[in-house]
Write a structure and sequence with these properties.
The protein is mainly alpha-helical and 102 residues long. It contains four helices and no strands.
Length: 102
């Protein structure tokens, strides 16, 4: 039963992490945090970096989070299980800040 809870937690956190980029995009639009671009090419590039990069950040963190099943330390287990949730958020917020103030 204990392993089923671990696997279920792993699947839920990875599912939420995979949806973090679209959720953050909607929140950024609602808060008017999406930068204005002068050309359509720049806007397209930002969109590619935002969604593509956020997906790659999630994939990398999801692969790393498999270590959750093998680590004994409680602190590292928490870091590893939450990595797929926070990695795309940190990447996308950083990208928003970069384009907003650059």
């Amino acid at each position: 039963m204990k392993n089923i809870v671990k696997i279920l937690l792993f699947v839920i956190v990875n599912g939420l992490g995979s949806q973090a980029t679209p959720i953050l995009a909607n929140v950024a639009v609602m808060l008017d945090a999406v930068p204005k671009f002068s050309s359509e090419l720049a806007a397209s590039r930002f969109q590619d970096l935002f969604f593509g990069g956020g997906t790659w950040a999630w994939i990398a963190a999801a692969v790393i989070s498999i270590g959750y099943f093998f680590v004994k330390s409680a602190e590292w287990r928490m870091v590893l299980i939450l990595a797929p949730l926070f990695a795309p958020i940190i990447y996308c917020v950083g990208l928003l800040l970069y384009y907003k103030f650059a």
